[in-house]
Amino acid sequence: QVQLAESGGRLVQTGDSLRLSCVPSGGSLRNSAMGWFRQAPGKERESLAALKWASTRPSYADSVKGRFTISRDNTKNTLFLQMNALKPEDTAVYYCAASAGPIITSRLLDTTAYDYWGQGTQVTVSA
Length: 127
Prior knowledge:
mainly beta
């Protein structure tokens, strides 16, 4: 059973940058996809960015394209989300997720394609 641990969320000001980390454990993700998602109070979970573990071509939601960057460090077995130019509307709980197996590219930003989810890390952007 894969477990995911996010970290890096905190209170920041508008315009600041923040990097989130996600460390998986308990299983192999060699053929999986991993992604970042967020959920603000009273809103549905939103897809942000995702990539296949064996690929260097990520997919981004239009809402974060150009501001957020997803990456991974294979040596540290860690997934990152670099967030720049943060806005108050970016305030949410940010989740890391992984699939149990391969995902086709067109489904990388589909929350229902993911099987394992972390507990989330809170990001708060003050005005």
